[in-house]
């Protein structure tokens, strides 16, 4: 099978970690029967400064017509609003209909407090439809409003995605892959006690989608939890969670916060997933403070490459990558400075390739 992968390094350390991702994919054993073809694509603030656009039309065209998946590094955002600049990854999620943002947060096997959860965030609506306006009223003065949109369709499909992920994790467990959870559980996050219509609809729709799909998810339990108590419990007892599904805003906040549970942003991967396409993307940004020094942790990107492969139905290849990365982390000898080590990006990558 030939997989055509678009590579979008972006800015800063994106340009250091995405080449590491490419080398990892190239190093996968040929016995897996996968070949890769790579295309380098531009996006980001540097691209904007060169060409006047942050996301060139060619990048979108090539991804849509000539790629099966992609890896995205990180992009810098200007600190002040710059005319004509908007985030390329946000635009890509829209243009490719990548409606789910999937973020696994997993501790090393040897961790005192094991964590193995995945946050599935709805990626297309909620307050992020950005329907905002500023008004002036003779009585209250200047005020601003934003619209929160929750649809049955978007909520059902994110529920379905959470169910598929929970079931996939359950299958891995049943096949003997060690896990801290005995069984699969999806927790729906919401605030329907206050926002009974919008969040109420989200909760109801996710429940409905999971119960409709019950015949394939018969081993997946379903719970729900109010977002504030969720934040509390996520920090007190993170080991309790398996799959968390959330509307856009809560999912954004919870997923960044959950990344703090495992020590470094440089470890946490994500995937932007649609029915036709997946973009793997490390959770971190362009890290201007360390860019150009060759010390960025490549692991978030390597895990993002594995996650991309999972959604391309190449679970075996993904499992090999996860095992090689975990072995590096358990041994804890070759680590980049964010984990307290002194190794370079190159040295960590080579160690993982050797294990692969
Ligand atoms: P950041 O994630 O770039 O960096 C935060 C801290 O974590 C820094 O100290 C950095 O050195 C460290 N760090 C991040 N990734 C690392 C890695 N792989 N290895 C070792 N250390 C790592 O977030 P920050 O500083 O808030 O933002 C920098 C730029 O990145 C901004 O322009 C921001 O807009 C952009 N950004 C882009 C994102 C994206 O493309 N999805 C996400 C977050 C921020
Ligand atoms: Mg965020």
Automatic annotation (TrEMBL):
EC number assigned by the record: 1.1.1.87
UniProt keywords, alphabetically: Amino-acid biosynthesis, Lysine biosynthesis, Magnesium, Metal-binding, NAD, Oxidoreductase, Phosphoprotein
CC terms in the record's Gene Ontology section: mitochondrion
Chain segments annotated as coiled-coil in the UniProt record: none
Keyword Lipoprotein tagged: no
Cofactor: Mg(2+)
SMART domains per record: Iso_dh
Known catalytic reactions: (2R,3S)-homoisocitrate + NAD(+) = 2-oxoadipate + CO2 + NADH
Classification via Gene3D superfamilies: Isopropylmalate Dehydrogenase
Residue ranges of every copy of the Isopropylmalate dehydrogenase-like domain listed in the record: 4-352
Pathway membership, UniProt: Amino-acid biosynthesis; L-lysine biosynthesis via AAA pathway; L-alpha-aminoadipate from 2-oxoglutarate: step 4/5
One record GO biological process: tricarboxylic acid cycle
GO molecular function annotations of the record: homoisocitrate dehydrogenase activity; isocitrate dehydrogenase (NAD+) activity; magnesium ion binding; NAD binding
Primary enzyme class: oxidoreductase
Domain of life, per lineage: Eukaryota
Family named by the database record: Belongs to the isocitrate and isopropylmalate dehydrogenases family.
Protein's recorded name: homoisocitrate dehydrogenase
């Amino acid at each position: 099978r030939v997989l055509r992968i678009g590579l979008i390094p972006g800015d800063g350390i994106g340009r250091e970690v995405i080449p590491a991702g490419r080398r990892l994919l190239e190093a996968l054993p040929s016995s897996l029967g996968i070949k890769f073809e790579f295309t380098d694509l531009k996006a980001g603030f540097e691209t904007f400064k060169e060409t006047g656009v942050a996301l060139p039309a060619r990048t979108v065209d090539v991804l849509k017509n000539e790629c099966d998946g992609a890896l995205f590094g990180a992009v810098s955002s200007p600190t002040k609003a710059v005319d004509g600049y908007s985030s390329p990854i946000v635009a890509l999620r829209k243009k490719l209909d990548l409606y789910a943002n999937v973020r696994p947060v997993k501790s090393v096997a040897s961790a005192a407090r094991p964590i193995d959860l995945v946050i599935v965030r709805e990626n297309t609506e909620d307050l992020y439809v950005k329907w905002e306006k500023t008004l002036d009223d003779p009585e209250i003065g200047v005020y601003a409003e934003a619209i929160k949109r929750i649809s049955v369709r978007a909520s059902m499909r994110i529920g379905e995605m959470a169910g598929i992920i929970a079931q996939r994790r359950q299958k891995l467990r049943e096949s003997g892959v060690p896990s801290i959870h005995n069984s699969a559980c999806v927790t729906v996050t919401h605030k329907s006690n206050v926002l009974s219509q919008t969040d109420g609809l989200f909760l109801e729709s996710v429940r409905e989608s999971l119960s409709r799909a019950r015949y394939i998810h018969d081993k997946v339990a379903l719970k729900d939890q109010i977002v504030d108590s969720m934040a509390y419990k996520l920090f007190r007892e993170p080991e309790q969670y398996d799959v968390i599904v959330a509307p856009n805003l809560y999912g954004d906040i919870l997923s960044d916060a959950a990344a703090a549970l495992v020590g470094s942003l440089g470890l946490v991967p994500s995937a932007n997933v649609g029915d036709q396409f997946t973009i793997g993307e490390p959770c971190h940004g362009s890290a201007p403070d360390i860019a150009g020094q060759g010390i960025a942790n490549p692991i978030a990107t390597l895990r993002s490459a594995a996650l991309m492969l999972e959604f391309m139905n190449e679970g075996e290849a993904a499992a090999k990558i996860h095992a090689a990365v975990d072995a590096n982390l358990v041994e804890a000898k070759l680590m980049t400075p964010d984990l307290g080590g002194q190794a370079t990006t190159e040295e960590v990558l080579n160690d993982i390739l050797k294990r692969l």
